Amino acid sequence: xPTKKPKPTDVLVGQRVRMARLxxxxxxxxxxxxxxxxxxxxxxxxxxxxxxSSSRLAQISEVLGKPVSWFFNEGRASPRAKTxxxxxxxxxxxxxxxxxxxxxxxxxxxxxxxxxxxxDLAKSIADETRSARSRMA
Length: 137
What we know:
Elements: H1 8-23, H2 28-35, H3 39-47, H4 54-64, H5 85-94, H6 99-107, H7 112-136
Helix pairs in contact: 1-3, 2-3
């Protein structure tokens, strides 16, 4: 029996829940405790595997301090609308562990030259990681 693929809207809302949770520096367990569910259910919501009901989204919205509309990427026509590469990268960065902390720290660096060095270093590490994976394959 084939598995059901999550709907794009469910995935988008789940990503936005994760982003808001990380921005609030809150664990899945803490969010679950605030809204009366397990961390496993929070995981399923964040991956889009389980749909979030409107009442549950209202709870999440209140706990994370975001309006409900924020979880639907307000300002975009629809979850299927073509997004800019930068917006996609930013959303991805803010949904990985440490991404919010890195973004916050980076924005506090006043020196443009130092920010460029950090960017160059990150690119170099990413390229080396990609090269190492290619050699292993």
